[in-house]
Amino acid sequence: MVANIALGILGLLVAFQVLARLAKKVFHATFPAPALIGPFLNSRFRRMIQPPDKVLRQSGVQAGMSALDFGCGSGGLTTFLARAVGETGCVFALDIQLNMLRQLQRKLGRAEHRDIHNIQPVRANAHELPFHDDSLDLVMVVGVLQEVPDPSRALREIKRVLKPGGIAAVSELLPDPDYPLRSTTVRLGREAGFHLDEASGSFFTYTVRFKKP
Ligand SMILES: C[S@@+](CC[C@H](N)C(=O)[O-])C[C@H]1O[C@@H](n2cnc3c(N)ncnc32)[C@H](O)[C@@H]1O
After folding, report:
1. Do residues 3 and 64 both lie within one domain?
2. pTM
3. Can you point out the beta strands (E) in 78-131?
4. Residues 50-99: pLDDT tens digits?
5. CATH number of the domain enclosing 182
6. Residues 25, 87: one domain?
7. Which atom of ligand 1 is nearest to the CA of 69?
8. Which domain holds residue 6?
9. Which is nearest to 74 in space by CA: 49, 53, 52, 102?
10. Which residues line the pocket of ligand 1, CB cutoff 6 A?
11. pLDDT by residue (tens digit) across 2-42?
12. How far is the CA of 1 from the centre of ligand 1 (A)?
């Protein structure tokens, strides 16, 4: 019985992956994840398969950093990032979809997050980041890079806004229909002019940490 249910879930996941990837190929399309997946991004199940503290550790987050949550969605990682950089740091939570940013605002309005005052939501396109050159310590890119129409351009933009020595941390999770192999992420980062600092995690959920020279 349990084995049948597990096989059913696995089958559905595989079918979803195949259909989503086929649709992308046929229509030559990249599109942002629909805002209706916002609750999943904030769910306990998501935190179980991609624990935020692990992603933050692998990304090299430190107190006092100026950080950008690039494609923050409904804020699945944003509040964890805000607590990790602390009161001396700040987090810009950037997304192209207003509906995702509204979900983040609602999350921040809940009692358990009212003590967080260092998040600034920003509505912008990943291709044109509204930040000065060499201004940020860390950019976290979780499940976003392959959703952006031109990932290489987005990485060059991330490099522009990072301080020298700043970190770009790209994390991916396999059920995401845009999931790329780790080798693809490493290649794209290097092509954009980053140094590979560390690649960690498993095949299913990994983080590649780059540094701006
Ligand atoms: C799969 S969600 C991941 C959200 C969040 N990083 C997380 O891990 O919970 C991808 C997010 O990237 C955003 N996104 C996609 N394309 C974008 C673009 N061109 N510019 C800015 N954000 C974009 C989507 O709106 C969506 O909220």
Report:
1. no
2. 0.92
3. 90-95, 119-123
4. 999 999 999 999 999 999 999 999 999 999 999 999 999 999 999 999 99
5. 3.40.50.150
6. no
7. 6
8. 1-29
9. 102
10. 32-33, 41, 71-73, 76-77, 95-97, 100, 125-126, 142-144, 147-148
11. 677 666 666 666 666 677 777 777 766 677 888 999 999 99
12. 37
